[in-house]
Amino acid sequence: MPVPPPLDALADRLAALPPSCGPVRLIGVDGHAGSGKTTLARELSERLGGAPVLHLDDLACHEGLFDWTERLTRQVLEPLERGVRARYVVYDWVARAFTAEAGLPPAPVVLVEGVGAGRTALRPRLACLLWLEMAAEDAWRRGRRRDGPAQRDFWARWVPAERAHFAADPSRPFADFLVRETGSGRLGYEVRERRDETPGPPLNMTLRISDGR
Q1: How far apart are the C-alpha atoms of 69 and 49, rounded to whole Å?
Q2: H-helix or E-strand containing 171?
Q3: Which of 105, 102, 103 is nearest to 82 (CA)?
Q4: Per-residue pLDDT averaged across 93-114, rounded?
Q5: How far is CA 67 from each of CA 26, 96, 114, 139, 174, rounded to the nearest angstrom?
Q6: How does pLDDT run across 114-143, given as a tens digit for each residue?
Q7: Residues contacting 180, CB < 8 A, separation 6+
Q8: pLDDT at residue 2, as a whole number
């Protein structure tokens, strides 16, 4: 029997999980800045029938890069737990202010992507936590290249803030699945359960195949 592409198999696993936040299966997508969280969330959303994606960048701000837990809880998590549509304010990184509002329905699966999506305060409401495997320096280098010289000052503030965050509240040790980009050209992923790092499950439990469309 052919092995399904890893993201297809992962999406099936996510959809089959029990709800974790009211009627919602809340999926955290965490990793270092620049590691590819937004792309992975978009790919999974497509495989989950257009599952909504919440970008934590919309809730963070210059004055509090990681100070968004209360806002997330009050504006998003509590409404979803009640099975109602959430409405939250969106930060404009150019205007440096919260200038808009967005909605998020209590869909069967909701993806929450961003650095810190697996933080301690959020994990009790997560059905599953995914971690993007990429070394911090490699991810930050890619992020700087993506954002260009105009964001040099931002990255000078971000890197020490991210280091401090993960030193105090790490996510990777609590991830259910580790996801790594593979190959070049065609987008591919390797997906494995974190418990595969320790003796136990056989290596052939790893899902590995090029996944491009």
Answers
A1: 28
A2: none
A3: 105
A4: 96
A5: 20, 15, 13, 22, 21
A6: 999 999 999 999 999 999 999 999 999 999
A7: 132, 133, 134, 189, 190
A8: 61
